[in-house]
Amino acid sequence: MGNSYAGQLRTTRFEEVLHNSIEAALRSNAVVPRPVFSQLYLETEQPLAHDGRTENDDEDDEVGSESNSPPIPYQMKPPPEGCCTIDGFCQAGRDLRLSSLASDPSDLPPGFMLVGVKSPSLPETLLVCAVDRRFLPDERGHNALLGFLGNCMGCGEKGFRYFTEFSNHINLKLNTQPKKQKHLKYHLYRNNQGVLVKGAPICWRGHDGRMRQMGSSLSESHVTTDEQPANMALTHPTHTPGNYTGSNVDPIGLPQITDVPHSLTNGNTAITQPPLKQSRPGRPSAKGSHANAGPPKKRHKGWSPESSANTLPESTVKTPPSSSALSTLSVSSVITNGARSETAAPLSSLQGIPLTLLSPPELSVTIPDQLLHTCRLQPVIFKGHGPLPQLTGNANEVLLSSLLQSCYLSSKTLPRVYQHYGPSPIQPLSTEMQILLTVYYLVQLGPDQVPLIEDLEQIFMRSWRESHLSEIRQYQQPQTPASQGRHYGIETTSTLPGLPQHFSLPPQSQQPLTPSQLPWLAQLAASSCGEGVVVLGENIGSLAQGLQQMFNRLMEGRLENTNYVVIIVTTPGQETQSCVVVTGKHQCRALAESMYSPKEGLKEINHQLATGVAQELIHYCNSQQDGDLDSLLDSTTVDSSEPSPLSSSQESAEERSLKTTHSPKDTNSPKDSHKPCSKDLPSPKESASSPKDTCSEYSVEWREVRPIQLAVARKLLSHVCAIADSSTQNLDLGSFDRVSFLILVPSSEVTFQQTVLQLWKSGVLQELGGLDQKCVSQREAERYVVKMDQSAQARIDSLIQEAQSNSYTLYILVHDHAHCDINSASHSSSDSGLGLVDQLLNSRQVRDAPNILILHVTSFPFALQTQYTRISPYNEIHWPSAFSNDVDLYHEKTRYFGVSELLESTRSGSSLPLMRHDSSFESMASALEERFPKLHSAVIRTTVLIQHYCVALMAASGRISSSHNLHKHTSVETLEIVQSLLTASQQCPAHHGHMVLLRIPSLALAEWAHRRLSRVRRQLGLEESFEIILGNPNQALNIAPNFTEQIKTWLKIQDADWVPQTYLELEALPCILILSGAEPLGESLPRSLKYCDLRVISCSYLQRTTLEQELGLAAYLVRAESRPPHNPGPGSDLLESDAEKLSSTDNEDEDGQENGDSPLSCSQQLQSCPDSGALDPVPAQSTTSPNVSQKGTMDAIQPPSQSQTQLQPQPPSFPYPQATIHQPQVQSYSQAQSVPQLQPQPQIQSQNQSLSQTNSQAYTQTLPQPQSLSQIQIPHPQPHAPAQSRRQHSKSTSSGSLSPQGSSPHQSCSWARGVSRPPSVLLPRALYDIITASDSSGLPRCTSFLPHMSVAWASSFRPLLSKMMTCTEQSLYYRQWTVPRSYHMDSSNRTEGRSDNFHPRRLLLSGPPQVGKTGAYLHFLGILSRMLIRLMEVDIYDEEDINYSTQTEGVLYHPPNASWPNLDIMRTMPFDYTIHDPKYDDISSVYCPGSTPSFEGNPVRQEDVYLRRRTSRIKLSKYAAYNTYHHCEQCHQYLGFNPRYQMYESTLHAFTFTHLLLGEEIQLYFIIPKSKEHYFSFSQPGGQLESMRLPLTSDWSPDCIKSPIFTPTTGRHEHGLFNLYHAMDGASHLHILVVKEYEMAVYKKYWPNHIMLVLPTVFNGAGIGAAHFLIKELSYHNLKLERSRRLEGGGPTVDVWPFVILTDDSCVMWNAVDLDARNGSVEHAVSLKQILQHMEACPDLAHYGLCGIRKWSSCGLTGNKQREPFSRGHLHDFLLLNVDRSQNVQYDQNRFTCHDVDFTLRLHSAGLLVCRFNSFSVMKKQIAIGGYRTFIIKTKTTDVPTSVGPSQYICAPDSKHLFLATPAQLLLEKYLQHTRQKLFPLSTKNYTHPVLSVDCYLNLGPEVTVCFVSSRPHSVNISTTGLLFSGLLLCFADSFVTPGFLKKFTFLKGATLCVISADRSSLRQTVGRLELEEEWRFRLSDEFQTANAKEDRPLFFLTGKHI
Questions:
Q1: DSSP letter string over 1530-1574?
Q2: How many Cα atoms within 13 Å fall on the side-chain side of residue 1146?
Q3: Is 1176's pLDDT higher than 70?
Q4: Torsion angle, CA of 392/398/403/407, rounded to 10 degrees?
C-alpha cells in the first residue's frame, strides 16, 4: 500500500475496498470524505520487534525510504499567468511566512490546525498553512488518513484536496514529487503573548529519526518538546480563537474524540492504536488538560469539519479570563451531560490558587495490555487536583473526564457578591476538604448509583456555607429584593440530594484540615463501605504511582468489588493532588455512554447494528430458550384463519389444574371456555365488525374547549392587551382589523397532522370567516401549519412579505413545542435541520415587524428562561392549577394526570403504582451488559425487551408446546402487557382494544424491533389481532388496510381514501406503537394508551427537560368523576397479573417444576382478568417484599356478577358496584398472604435467575383458572359463589371465552373501562430511582438537574428549587441561575448597557404535557380575532325617527337626486316643528297644526338613557373618527409625533372679549400647539393672540376644509372621538376642543396636538348651552376681527367665510346615500371631508342660517322624507352654523337640556332658513362615560350622590329645606320635566290644548305639548287663531313680551300659569308689568324657588290659575 500507518490489511477484499474508497474520495468534489473511506484509518497495534521496528515497518518503502539514489526528476506545473511566484508568498500574492503571520489572528475552520511548511528555497523560515488534522498523524505516527485537505492562510482559499496542488499554490518550487510527509514539518501554537511560534515536529513515521525509541524514551523525548506549548494553551485559553478555548471545547462544538493528538491540544500524551476489530468508538482519552477534538473513531459516517454536533460540551467560554463570570460560567456541568468531552475550567489561577505545572516527563503510566478484555470494563479517570501524568500504552481503553476538576474549580470560585468587599474572611473550601467530601459522597452512593456532579456541588456548597455562616449572613444584608429581581437568598438546606438524612458532613472546626491528616481521614471514611471505595493515599509519591498501583490491582482482580478508587498525593512542600478512578462496571458503562452527545449515541447504535456486532447478542438471547426461539417459531405451522388445536400437553396440564380444586360437577363447566387464545382473536373474515358487532360503550367525542382552556386563552388575550396598553407602543391593536396566524411545529409528520386536525376541528378558521376564506377541508387547514424543516424558510419568508404589505393584519406566529429546537443558527449546519427557529423567528424582519407577535408554546420552558432570554417575565403565561385545596376552580369534567400524579402513585403505598420498574428485565439486561461490555446498553436493553415481547407473544398465543417453559424467558410485566393487548379486544364485540407504547429512541433499533415483532406476529398468526406501528417522526403513519377499515367502521367514516394520520385517530385500536426519535416531538397519544413502556430510554442524559419529556408521554386527562388513581375504592377494577404479581419472586425451584408446568398456567392466569386497569387494585399489599412497588401487590379477581351488571348504566364513581362481593375477596387475599408458598420473598437475583425466571409457578399451580380468588384452597376457605354466576364469570374472562356466539350482551368493552384511567409507565431502574427520590426541598430529584442540555448553571453557589415555588418563581429562578451555552439561540441576545433585551411582542405559554395547550391557543386566536373585530366595531345608536306615524304624504319639493337645495324652493317648504330625533322621545312635543302625535308611542324612560337606547354593532370604516386608544403610523404626526416639534410643545394664549348678555368682560384661553400656530394671527411672532384666521368665501382647495370645527366636550378626554385624521381623509382642517377649565390639564395630556378653547371659570358648572353660546359669540367676534384685519390689508370684508361647525364628541362615521344604485337608495361610508366640502360648495349657502345632516338609522328615512333630499326642521349633533346671519339669535347660555330645540325654534322664528341635507347621515357612537347629559344631583352637605326625588328640587322661599349642590337652571329643568301633572294638569295628553311657551322652549315632559311663539317683531309664528291653551309659560320674559301680546291668546278656564325669574323682585315686577293678576289668580303658597342656597343664586317661579 505504500504507507505503513494505514493499518494491517490482511485480505484482498479489504485492500480492494480501501483502494476503491480512496479513489472515490479523491475524485469527489465534496469537502467531506466518503463514509466508507472514513472508516479505514484504524490499524491494529503491532507488537514491537527487538530492534524497535514494528513488523510491517519493512513495507514502508514509499513513505519512509530516504535512500541515496538520485531523486526522481519532477516537473512542476507552470504557474498561471500573472500570479505571484515569490518564495514565501502564495500565488495570490499574500505573505505566508511565520515571521509575518505570527501576530495575525488566525480563523481556523473546525477540525483544522496550523502547520509549519518547510520550503527548500527558504530554509530559515516556515510557511503557515491550515491542514485538516485527520490527514495528520498522532504522536506515534498513526491514524493519519490518506490524502490531504488544506487551506491557504494567506489569501484564505479553501479546499485544496491534493498536496501537489497546494504546494503549487504556496510556491514551494520542488524538484521532487511533493509529499505531505516531507514538507509538513511542525505543529504551530500561540505562546503566552499570543504570538504564533514553532512547536513540536509532526511525527511522520520514517521521518525525523522515525521516533523509534521504545517505552519511556518515546515519552520523554516527546514531552520535553511539547511541555511548554501545552502550558501556553492552558494559561491563555482565549488566545487561540480559531482552535480551542480554555474550556477544552471546540468553539462550535465538534465531537470531542481523541484520536489524533497534537501539541496544541494535548502536549504530553502518547496514545496507542485501538485494535481493528474494536466495536465501540474511541473515547476521550486525553491525558493533559485538553481533550482532543477530532473525527469519530469509527468512520462509518462522513464527518464534516464544518458540521457541528447537535450538542456542545458543557460550556464554551468566549469571554476573556478577566471576566468575573468566566470561572462560574465554564465549570458548571452535569456528569451525564451529553457531550463527548467534558468541560475543563480555564486553568489560569483562580482566587490566588497557583496551578502546578505538568508532571515531570519521567512520571508516566503505562496502561496494561488487554485491560478491557481482562477486566471487562473501561475505567473512567476523573481529573481532580493537579495534572494527570502521561498515560502510555493502550490509552483507548481508559476514559478521561474533567467534570470533577470543573466542580472543584467551580466551588473555589466565590459568588461575586463576596468579591465586592475587598479582603474578606470568607475563603473557599480547601483542596483537602474537597477531597474528603468527595470520599464521603462516594462512600454513601449505592452499588448501582452513578455519581452526579450536581450532588457533589451541593455538598461542597453546604459545607462552605456552614463554615462561614456568620460572614455569609453579614454579606447578605445589603441585598434587596429590588436588586435581585426576586431574592433567592442562599439558604442552607438541611439535607442534600444524594445524602441520607443520617449522613452528616464532617464538622468544620477552626483548625483547617492538613494534608497529612487527609489520607487517613479519607481511608477512615472509606472503611465504612468495605471494598466499595478504595483510598490510595499512604506511601503514594505521585499520581503516576497511584495510577500504576491501581492498574496493577485492577488487572490482578483485587478491585472486583470496588466501584471507586481515590488517589491522594500529599507530598510535603507541594500542593495536594488527587484523582478518582471509577472501576465499577455499571458506573463505567453509564459514565462512558453519558460522554456521547445524544446524536453521537444514536450514531454509535446505528454503527453497531450496521456492522453486525449486535448479532452475537441476538443469537445469544435466542439460544437461551429451551431450543432456539426462531426454530420454535418456524416449527409452528399457523394458518391465520384456522388456528391449531390445543396441544395434548396443554390440555392435560389444564385438566390437571382443574381437577385439583373442582368437584366433578364443575369440571365440565369451564371446559368449553378454554380454547386456545388465538381462537379469540378475530380472523380476517371477522376483523371488520359486522353491523351487529357494535360496541354500545364506544364513543369518540372531539374535545370541546374546557373551562381551564378558556381561562388560559383569556389570560393570553389579556397579556396581548397589556402589551398594547403599555406606554411603549410596541403593539397597536387598534390599527388591526384581522388576525392571521402560522403554527410552527417540530419536523414530525404526526405532530403536523394532529395540529392540522385540531385546527380544522376547532372552528378557528371558520371564526376568521369573512376575513380568511372559509375552510371546508382539512387540506386547507394545512396552509396555517408548517413543519420546522427546510421547507419552513419559504413559508416564513412569504409571511414576512405578507406582513409588510398588510399592515392592518396582526400575524401570530405560534411556535409550538418551542423546546425542540433552540440551537443557534450560526452553530448549526444547514443540513442538520437545527437552528431553523433561530434563523427564522429571531431574524431582524420578524423582530422588527410591528404586526408580528410570537407565541412560544411548550411544556418545558426552562431552556427559554435564562439570563439572556428574549421573553420578558411579564409575558409568560403559566397553565393554572385546576384545583386549590381540593376545590375545583374551573368545574372541569376532566382531571389532569401528569408527572406529579405519577410520582404520587409511587408513594401512596395502597395500590400498585402506575409508575414502576421491572426487576426481572433489569437483572437480565445487567447480566448481558456484563457479558457484552463493548455493546451500547441501548442495543442490549432493546434486544432483551423485544425478546421478552416475542416470548410473551408466543406464550400468550398458546401455540408453543408446554415443554418449553416460555414464561421463564420473559418478565411478568411484559407478559401482563401482551396478555392485556391480546385479550382486551376479545371482550368487545367491535374488537376495541388498547395501545401499548414502546419507546425506542434509536430509529435503527426501532426498525429492527418492528421487523422482529412483525415476524413473530406473522408466524403466530396474530396479524388480525393487533397492529404493530413504527412511529418514525420523519414519515407518515402507516396502518395495515384491514385495521384502517376497522377504524373507519368505528368512526363511521365514508371516505374511501381516508387513512389515519395521527395517533389520536387510533383510538381503541389494539396495537403496539414503537415510537422512535431522539426525543418525542409533541405527538399526542389516544386515550386507549394503557402501557407506556419506557424501559429502554437512555439513562445518560439527566436533564429535567429530557426526563419530563419522556414521562410526559403518559400524561392523561381522566374523567373528574372517577376516583383518584392512588385512592382506590371498593369497586376497584381488576388487574391482569393479579396472581402473577404476588408470585413474581425468585423461588423458582419450588413445586412449580414438580407439577409439570404448563404455559397456560402463566398465560391463562393473566387472562383471568383481561382488563388491565393498573389503577384500582385492592389496597392490601405485602410489605415483606423489598420490591413492593412492583411485585408485592395482588388484586381481587372480578366478581362473578360482573358480567351481568356490565351493561347496566352505573354511576361514574363506581362503575362496578358489587362492593359486597369484593369484600370477602379482600379478606381472602389477606389470609392468602400467610400461605408460605404465596409469600413474596426477598429478591436474590443471580445471573442465572435473571436470565431464566419462572416467577409464576409457585402460585399458579394451586390456583385453577376459572375460579375467583376467594375460592383458593387455603386454611380459611371462603364460601363458593353459586355455580351459575361462576359459569358466567369464566365465560366472560377466561382465555377461551369467545365462542362463535361470543358477542353476547354479557361482554363488556375493556377499552371503555380503561379509558378513564391513566396508563401504567415502566421505567429503567436507574431512572426510576432518580425520579422517585426527593431532594432536601421535597421536590423530585429530577427538578434539581440542569434544565436543558443547551444551558449551563451560572454558578454552583445556587439554592435549590423550593417546593413552594410557583411557576413564575421557577421561571425567575432559572432566569437568575442559568446561562445559555454558545450554541443556544439566546446566547447572542446581549446588548451593551442593557440589563434586559426582551422582545416586546413575544409571549411564552407553558403548561404540562397533554394538558390542552393547543386547544387553548387555538381558542385564543379565535377570541383575539373577535376582539380585533370588536375593536374595529362600535355601538352606534340605531333608532328609527320618532313622530312620523301621523305624518301625511307630502309633496316632493326637490328631485331625489338633487345635489344642493334650491333657495326658492326651500323658502316655500313648511317648517317641520315636530322633533324626530329618538334621543328626544321623552320631551314635550312642539305643537304644529294638523299634527296629532300618539302619546302611547313614547314610553316614559328612566334617567339612564344609555342602557335603554337601541344600538347596532357597526364595523369602523376607514373614514372613522377615533378616541385616544387609536395609534396608527399615519396618525403619529397628527397626534403630535411631529419630528419638527417637541411633543407637548404648546403655548397658552389669553383672549378677551365682551358680550352684552354676559354683562362683563370674558377672558378665554387658547392652548395652541406649535404645529398649529399658523391658524392664528398674532401681534408679532410669539406675541398677543389677535384672531383666528378665516379663509375667504372664494377660497377653495381640494385638501382643505374652510369651516373651523368646534367640539364641546366634558369627561371624555380618553373616549371622545377627537382624532379626525382618517375622517378628514388627511385634509387640512382647524379643529378646536372646547373644554372646561378644570379639565384643561387632562385633555392637554391626552391630546397634545389639538387646539383647546378653555371656557371661563364661571362655566365650570354650566351645561352644553353655555359652550355653544360661547362658541357662537366668539366666532362672530372673530369674524368681525378678521373682517377688520382684511380691511386693513386692503381686501374685501364681506368675503370672509362666516361658517363654523358644531359637532358632538361622539360622532364616529358619516354616510352618503347613493341614489344611482339599482336597488334604490344605498348608504355607504364617506369621509367627513367629502360631506363638508359638498356642503361648503352649496350655492347660496350664505343665505342659510343653519345647515345639518340627519342621524343615521339602519331603517333609513321614514315616510315621504325618504325621498325628499332636503328638509326644514330641527337639527342636532352636527351643525354648520352661519354666525353672520344668526348674529341676533343666541344659544341660551343657561340651558342644560334641549338647547338645540330651543335654538332652532328661535332661529326659525327669526326668519332664517334651516336646511337638513337628508342625503348625508351621521353615526353617533354610544359612549357611556362623560358627556353633557350626565349631571349628578347631590346634596350640599354630604357631597355624596343621594337619591333625591324631583319634588325636592324646589322649595318655598325662606323655608328650611335640604339644599342641593346643583345648578339652579338644571334643577328647574328637571323639575318641570318630571312634575308636569302637578304644574299643568289640563295639558296632560291634551294635544289640542298645548301650553303656550313664549320666546323659549322648555321640556314639560312627554305628555305635554308646547306651542312655541316668539314675541319679537316680524317673527315667524304659527297661527293660534281659535286655539285654546291649557297653560302659559313665561321664562325670563323680556321687554318684547307685553300685556297686549299676551292678550292675543285664549286660555282654558283653570289653565296654569308659570312665571320664572332670577329673583323674587323681578318675579313680582314681571307679574305687575304684564298685568297678569287681571286674568290669573295667585296665592302666597304658589311661589317657589329651586332648592339652592342663597349664594348659589336660586331661581324663583310663581304659579297661578286662569280665572
A1: GGTTTTT--TTS-TT-EEEEEEEEE-TTT-SEEEEEEEEEGGGGG
A2: 17
A3: no
A4: -70
Other C-beta atoms closer than 10 Å to the C-beta of 241 total 15
CA angle 1176, 1182, 1185 (to 5 degrees): 120
Task: Give the CB-side neighbour count of residue 1896, counting CA atoms within 13 A.
Answer: 24
Assigned C-alpha cell, 1729: 371631508
CB 126 within 8 A of CB 118: yes
Q: Are 1319 and 1099 in contact (CB under 8 A)?
A: no
Cα angle for residues 1708, 1714, 1715 (degrees, 5° grid): 150
Q: Which helix H or strand E contains 580, and what residues bound it? A: strand 577-582
Rounded to whole angstroms, what are the CA distances from 494 to 115, 489, 501, 502, 505? 56, 15, 9, 11, 11
Q: Which residues of 1975-1989 are buried (b: 16+ CB within 10 A; e: fewer)?
A: bbebeeebbbbbbbe
At 1029 the three-state DSSP class reads: strand
Q: Are 1928 and 1891 in contact (CB under 8 A)?
A: yes
Residue 1350 contacts residue 311 (beta carbons within 8 Å)? yes
Neighbours of 501 (CB within 10 A): 8
Q: What is the rounded CA–CA span in Å between residue 795 and residue 813?
A: 11
- Give me 1870's grid cell: 328637571
Closest CA to 995 of 1043, 1063, 932, 1083: 1063
pLDDT of residue 1786: 95
Amino acid making up residue 1547: T
- Asked if 1595 contacts 1614 with a C-beta cutoff of 8 angstroms, the reply is no
Cβ contact 1826:1646 at 8 Å:
no
What are the phi and psi torsion angles at 819 (to 5°)?
-80, -10
Q: Cα–Cα–Cα angle for 47, 52, 54, nearest 5°?
A: 40
The predicted pLDDT at position 1721 comes to 76
Residue 1379, SS3 per DSSP: strand
* Residue closest to 1607 by CA, chosen among 1617, 1599, 1621, 1595: 1617
pLDDT at 1146: 37
What confidence category does residue 1180 fall into, taking pLDDT thresholds of 50, 70 and 90? Answer: very low
- CB distance 1033 to 750 below 8 Å: yes
Cα separation values, 798 from 792, 795, 802, Å? 10, 5, 6
List the beta bridge partners of residue 897: 1116
Instruction: Give residue 1082's pLDDT.
Output: 93
- Give the other-Cβ count within 10 Å of 1826's Cβ: 18
Give me the amino acid identity at 488: Y
Burial class (CB in 10 A: 0-12, 13-18, 19+), 1499: exposed
CA-angle at 1188, arms to 1185 and 1192, nearest 5°? 80
898 contacts 1115 by C-beta, under 8 angstroms: yes
Q: CA 1553 from chain center: how many Å?
A: 65
Cβ-contact 264, 113 below 8 angstroms = yes
- Closest to 1178 measured CA to CA, from 1220, 1227, 1215: 1227
For 1754, other C-beta atoms within 10 Å of its C-beta total 12
**For residue 29, what are the contacts with CB-CB under 8 A and spacing of at least 6?**
none
How far is the C-alpha of 726 from the C-alpha of 28, rounded, in Å?
A: 59
Phi, psi of 116 (to 5 degrees): -90, 125
Q: Calculate helix-pair angle for 937-957, 598-610, nearest 10 degrees.
A: 60
| Residue 253: Cβ-neighbour burial (10 angstroms; 0-12, 13-18, 19+) | buried
3-class DSSP state for residue 1237? Answer: helix
The structure's pTM equals 0.65
Eight-state DSSP code of residue 1498? S
- Dump pLDDT digits (tens) for 796-809: 899 999 999 988 89
